[in-house]
Each structure stands twice: as C-alpha cells, then as structure tokens.
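A brief tutorial aside. Many learners find it easier to grasp structure tokens once they have seen a single protein encoded end to end. The record that follows does exactly this for HTH cro/C1-type domain-containing protein. Read the sequence first, then the structure, and try to relate runs of similar tokens to stretches of the chain.
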Amino acid sequence: MNDHTYGTNLKKVRKEMKLSQKQLAEDICSQAMLSRIENNEVIPNALIMTEICKRLNISVEEAMNEHSPHSQKSRDWLQLMQYLHQTHQYTQLSLLISQQYVPPAHFSKEELQLYYYYKACALASFDSHSKGVTKLLQESLDCTFDFEQTGSSDMEIILLSELGRLRLFQGETEAGLLFMKKSLSYFSYNSAKRTNIELVRAIYHVGTAFINHQLYDLADRAVAQGIAWAQKNHVLYYLDQLFLLKGIISQEHHQIPKTLESIKLIDTLTSVAVREQNLAAEI
C-alpha cells in the first residue's frame, strides 16, 4: 500500500473493531484530524501514527502495507480451514479454530465471513441443529449482506441456503422458504460468473426444501439450474444428489423415462466418484 492509501487501511481496521472515530481519536488527535487521515488527505506524524496503530492492535508496517505477513498468514489459515471443511475433517478443523487464534480485527469483512462460516460448520459436525450454529451462520451473513441488495456473492448464496435449511428444521416455514427463494434468486442472477463449488450443495438444499413443501415448479427450476451450472463448470460435488432430486421431481410428474434416466446418471456419477477416490488413495 502506498502513502496515499494507508488511511483507507486504518479506516477498515477501525470499522472491523467497531470503534467510532471519536473512540479511536481520544487522547491521540482530534476527530477531524483522524477523519482527514482516514480520507488520505494528510500524513500523520510518527507519534500519532504509532498511537493509532497501538489502539488498533496493528503494527505501523501493517497499516502501511495491505500485503503484510500478517495478511498472508490470515489467508493461509483460512485456506487451511476451507480444505478441512471440504474434506470433512471436522475434528481437525475444530482443533485448528481452538488452537490458532487470529484476531478478527485484522480480517476484511469477507475473511471474517469465512471465519464464522467454517466455525459454524465445525460446530454443526457435532450438533447440526444447535442454536449456536444458527447464530454463527447469521453472524457470517451479516458481515456483508443486506436483504435489499440486488446482487449477491457466492458465500452469501451458500449462507442463505444453510440458514433456510435450519429455519425450516426449527419450524419457521415462512422464514425458511424466504431464505431458500432468495438463495435461488441470487444464484440465477449472473450465474455464469460464479465459481464456488459449494454452490451445488446449496442448490441441493434449496431443491430439497421445495420438494418437501411440494413446490415442485420451484424445485425443478433450482435443480435444472444447479445441474447446468455444475456440468458447465465440471463440478461433480453433489451433482449425483441433484440428479436424485431430478428423479424425484420427474416421478411426481409421472415422467417415468426421465426418472430412469436420472437413476442411470446417478450410477455413472457414483462410479466416477469411487474411481477418483481410489486414484487419490493410490497417490
């Protein structure tokens, strides 16, 4: 980060720590001065910069450089959490969360969102429907999401699906289906630019919810879009489950040939998955 953007970095950390300008500036400088610093209008002297960084619990180097070693450490840590989650190693994930603490003040909103999400996944592996899981998922969503927004990130779509599933389990049918409809609506918007493979699982949960509540047209739309996206992006993750849902929908519509076609595709996908697992084991 150059001399003209360090103020933006200070402002980001302050907001993540939920400090007001008045709280950060107290006994260091005037609030007006801090505002000018955050807007990159003035360069603070060394004493003011040191005191601001001390209150934000970051080094001056980190304030001046968004690509600091600490930032890289945070990214590496989150990538390890992602790997443990996607490979279902939840005991190790829980251990990692409990042993290696990274102060949330150094996270961007998106990093904090991932942190809460993986923490929720670790807890869910032991008690999938606990209120603690719901709370963590909601905290994760709240990091970036606004119900009035027109677009959505991949993670927000995944979180809406997870929260919808939990709301439905807890008997909150109206709220649960609203989350599911939002998740599908956002997925449909600009789906060509989406990249997270966990979207397939999210759409599987959406489709399952609609089938369980006999909303077959919505279920058919969700499953068709999920299958098309997975095939276009060469994603096998949860694809067999989407074809299973497609078979169930076809059966409800008395479309026996389509049901049989889905069953054959599920068998093929299962064989491919087993083959890949065997190859991975050999490696």
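Self-check: DSSP finds 15 helices and no strands in the chain. If you spotted this yourself, you are ready for the next section.
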